[in-house]
Amino acid sequence: MSESYDDLQTSYGRCLRSGSFMARFYEIFMASHPDIPAMFAHTDMGAQYVALRRGISVAISHASGSTLSRRTMLEMAKVHGRGGHAPVPPVLYAHWSDSLLRAIAEHDAEYDVALEQRWRKALDHTTSYFASQY
Ligand code: HEM
């Protein structure tokens, strides 16, 4: 049975409202593993904020069982697969999730343990899917 993650879309909306969420996420994420900054050395970070902003929303929909998000998820997974333009060794995904959860904790005033567990479940769904497509 799929589960509704409307509470996560709402939490995510609260995070984005401040305007500094994406920049803060990448600050935490870059510092989380020595291999990560080099991966973004040639990236237009403004465009990247926009791409990930949408990517996270699609990932939440996909975790809740939406079939509309399937194709976009597969495209994002391919970008991060071995043959994609930004291959991501699956071992790095834990850093991505932990960094995102830290940024959410800082930006969502309603964040608590229950919400954190739900976010983690949805993010695990995404990262295990990407890893399976590697
Ligand atoms: C350890 C985890 C991750 C790393 C190291 C990583 C790294 C990258 C890099 C280096 C790029 C390319 C930037 C460029 O074009 O210069 C990229 C693009 C992108 N990433 Fe990730 N990523 C990670 C996880 C994710 C996850 C989990 C999502 C989705 C929820 C995601 C969504 C995207 C999207 C939408 C793009 C733009 C794709 C495009 O250019 O077509 N990434 N990522």
The CATH homologous superfamily is called Globins
Helical proportion, percent range? 55-70%
In percent terms, what proportion of residues is strand? under 5%
Q: Any idea what the radius of gyration is? A: 14 Å
Q: Which CATH architecture is right?
A: Orthogonal Bundle
| Discrete helix count | 7
- The oligomerization state is single chain
The count of strands amounts to: 0
Q: Let me know the average pLDDT.
A: 96
Can you summarize the main beta sheet?
Answer: none
Poorly predicted sequence stretches spanning 5 or more consecutive residues: none
Ligand catalogue: protoporphyrin IX containing FE
Sequence of secondary-structure elements:
HHHHHHH
CATH class identity: Mainly Alpha
Describe the overall structure.
By secondary structure, this protein is mainly alpha-helical. It has a single domain (6-132), classed as Globin-like (Orthogonal Bundle). It has seven helices and no strands. The longest helix has 20 residues, at 113-132. The relative contact order is 0.18. The mean pLDDT is 96. It binds protoporphyrin IX containing FE (HEM). Protoporphyrin IX containing FE is lined by residues 36, 39-40, 42-43, 48, 51-52, 55-56, 59, 76, 79-80, 86, 88, 92-93, 95-96, 126-127, 130. Protoporphyrin IX containing FE binds next to helix 3, helix 4, helix 5, helix 6 and helix 7.
